[in-house]
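Example S7 (structure tokens).
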């Protein structure tokens, strides 16, 4: 059986979307390590299939997670090298999985749980999309933090010994908090932000055993901190093909659909 309290995480950074996602997941890594969890951080060029297989074999990690471009049946790493795909993810058996990626909740997630025997999977059945003021750590971005606090809530709760189901519900609560916050905002970007928050929240899915955990719940908690920022203009970003959209106008109103860069 996989080792409790051991994590393998992939953080590709080859484009704007994965770079921002990688910065966000560094907060999750720091928090998990502060609680005594062993984290094998596969960043940049290490976020490839063979290093992932080596890490899982060497560490026998109970939790595999990562950011990366995806499709209905594929999850990728650095330079969109395939890491997992339907019918080739047997190494995930008995593990907890969270993929911050587009669309894998449609086919790959169910296959990981139902056919490959993973304990549980959290992911997205839609293109995970967000707005940021600048290409930077989303937790210091006035728009980006609303999209990544719900993501980090999953890691926070799992690290504290909560079940996958509890982590999922805590994330949904955080999505709802930010939806309410931006629904009451006079910021010209607020309608677009609310629309995308609803999109991501409604596309977040959980399969498998909701009672699964990655650590025992006796470790000492550490406060989870978030940092606000104040910036302007916002490109739109997504994981899985939609990377950047056109800049907001000086009135912060989006003009046209997102551009696809891959």
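Recovered sequence:
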């Amino acid at each position: 059986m996989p080792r409790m309290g051991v994590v393998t995480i992939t953080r590709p950074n080859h484009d704007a979307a994965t770079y921002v996602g990688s910065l966000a997941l560094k907060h999750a890594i720091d928090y998990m390590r502060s609680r005594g969890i062993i984290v094998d951080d596969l960043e940049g060029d290490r976020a490839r299939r063979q290093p992932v297989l080596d890490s899982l074999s060497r560490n026998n990690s109970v939790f595999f997670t990562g950011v990366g471009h995806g499709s209905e049946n594929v999850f990728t790493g650095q330079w969109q090298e395939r890491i997992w795909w339907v019918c080739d993810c047997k190494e995930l058996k008995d593990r907890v999985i969270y993929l911050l990626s587009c669309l894998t909740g449609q086919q790959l997630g169910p296959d990981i749980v139902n056919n490959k025997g993973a304990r549980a999977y959290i992911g997205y059945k839609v293109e995970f999309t967000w707005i940021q003021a600048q290409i930077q750590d989303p937790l210091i971005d006035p728009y980006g933090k609303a999209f990544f606090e719900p993501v980090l809530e999953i890691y926070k709760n799992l690290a504290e010994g909560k079940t996958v189901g509890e982590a999922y519900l805590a994330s949904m609560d955080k999505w709802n908090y930010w939806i309410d916050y931006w629904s009451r905002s006079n910021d010209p970007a607020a309608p677009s932000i609310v629309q995308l928050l609803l999109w991501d929240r409604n596309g977040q899915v959980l399969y498998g055993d909701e009672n699964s955990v990655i650590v025992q719940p006796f470790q000492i908690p550490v406060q989870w901190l978030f940092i606000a920022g104040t910036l302007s203009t916002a490109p739109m970003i997504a994981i899985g093909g939609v990377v950047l959209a056109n800049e907001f106008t000086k009135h912060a109103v989006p003009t046209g659909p997102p551009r696809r860069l891959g």
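Notes on this example. Helices lie at 16-34, 49-59, 108-115, 145-159, 164-183, 190-203.
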